Amino acid sequence: MLLSIRTARRLTDDFHLLDLAWPAGMAEPLPGQFVMVRTREGTDPLWRRPLGVHDFRRVRGAGILSLLFQVVGPTTRDLSGLAPGAMLDLLGPHGRGYKLDAAEQWLVSGGRGVAPFLYVARLLHRSGVPCRAFLGGRSSGHILRERELARLGCRVEVATDDGSRGHRGLVTDLLDRALARLSERRRTGVMLLACGPHGMLKAVAGIAAARGVAAQVSVDPLMACGRGLCLGCSVPVREGGYRLACQHGPVFDARELSWDAP
Amino acid sequence: MTPDLKVRIGTLELPNPVMLASGTCGYGLEMMPHGDIAGLGAVVVKGLSLLPSKGNPPPRIVETPSGMLNSIGLENIGLDDFLVDKLPKLRRLGCRVIVNFYGGCRDDYRELAARLDGVEGVHALEMNISCPNVERGGVLIGQEPEEVHKAVAAVRGATRLPLLVKLTPNVTDIRLTARAAAEAGADALTLINTLQGMAIDVETRRPALARIVGGLSGPAIRPVAVRMVWQVRQALSIPIIGCGGIWTARDALEFLIAGATAVQLGTVNFTHPDRWVDVLAGIETYLVRHKLERVTDLIGALET
Fold it and tell me: Quick check: is B95 catalytic?
């Protein structure tokens, strides 16, 4: 389907934000779901690209889908050049997202992994569930949506590799420290929601297991179709065999995945 | 006047020549949100084995210029789950179903064919012979004419259903394996399966796929497929189903003109799940524009 672009905004050097008009009558996306987009006619690139739902809100009844992306290749470069009024070819929303049923949610992101969390924070804010966010990135230009998350009631902490903003080091160090300070009783009510590079997700899974908290992680393998047709986006699971990121995920219980399999 | 799109493949009559290729449309049901699959000539479901198969480790796919490589490893739910969970739904939809299947040895092939014979809702079989024969040190059945003959003859003896044999293009002369399949009793040949290929991440010096080598599909392979369809058409009279990188109606027409009786859309389904509707409409428009009453008038109509 074709969605029209309402606003297009550059956030930092290579991060951009698009607001699109969501067609009336379409089911609302769920937090952690993704859409498949395409910017060119022809066959290069061949596949659509998956982009996580960054935000979804209604303004006077009309749905607005936000997509946050980093320019990493031809499709995202094209997206960064789109202006209001242009149409975007999009399929979805696809996949299973985050379950937001814990007493307290902690969000953990690396770089563009912050993408799904504005919508998550909006829904948590609406239902009055306490939320903390740990944002990691290479440098200050890779820390995004800090203010918006804070405005939705999230307590935000930041870590950068180069120390240009917040803690110098890994975001997972901040997370581990914060968990260590909680009483065991309080920890049982905490659910970690993570999105970012594989190494970060693996670290979150390890910390969650060690500290006895639950965690949901959003994975991002190469995907051709996004709908269970190509069977390309398989993720190894602990019980043996694979699950498809596009259908069973992209969000999984961290304990379900096999973190040491190739 | 509306042109007649009906085609016949052996005893199988189809309302039109457009199918979805095995391994690119799940078990057919996954395509329903994008168009009524009963409107297709047929759906060729994901290749089935006797037992479920979990497939290969990731990464399984990589994008290449106008194409993609895959090594999915024939992941599927197995014959039993297909018959119980999928086929009844396909029957209710009124969809013509071609079941693609593969085995590790001749007995597997024979058993699969025998168990699918006479099952209501299965309209034809498509035999995948581009897989290793575990009894013969993993030699690819589809690469040796004698092996092809033996495997197809075994299946032929086990089923009365129309039998399509999907050939691998990874051979020196496709006409030899095509003839072997035809002589062993195939009703039609599907040309072509994926071409072997490989891609490397130069930064890490690692292969892009966990299994190193994979199968290339998409528009990149279309000229190879069209050539093979034409070569086999010249050599044999058996019906051919053309497959390989069809992206538009124009591409489908190329295969028909080269000598294919029907076509299969594959990789395009990943990007454009409803493209088959446009391809079908485009074929019809072409026939009208060229004042042809029947799509069969176009088959093999290459002017040389």
Answer: no
Mark whether A45 and A138 lie in a shared domain. no
Question: Does residue A225 belong to any structural domain of this protein?
Answer: yes
Low-confidence residues of chain B: pLDDT under 70 = 132-139
Chain B CB contacts of A229 under 8 Å are: 24-26, 30-31, 269-270, 273
Q: What is the pTM of this model?
A: 0.96
- Which of B59, B61, B247 is closest, CB to CB, to A230? B61
Q: Is residue B250 part of a domain?
A: yes
How would you class A60 by CB atoms within 10 Å of its CB: exposed for 0-12, middle for 13-18, buried for 19 or more? exposed
Instruction: Let me know whether A243 and A142 are in one domain.
Output: yes
Per the CB < 8 A criterion, the answer to whether B7 and B280 are in contact is no
For residue A61, what are the domain limits?
A: 2-94
Q: ipTM score of the complex? A: 0.95
Residues in A touching B56 (Cβ below 8 Å): 234
Residue B205 domain-assigned?
A: no
Specify if B108 maps to a domain: yes
Chain B residue with the nearest C-alpha to that of A240: B54
Report in angstroms the alpha-carbon separations of B53 from B31, B73, B103.
22, 8, 11
CB contacts of B273 in chain A (<8 Å) are 91, 225, 227, 229
3-class secondary-structure state, position B142: helix
Question: Are the beta carbons of A262 and B55 separated by less than 8 Å?
Answer: no
Q: Which two tokens stand for residue B130?
A: 């581009």
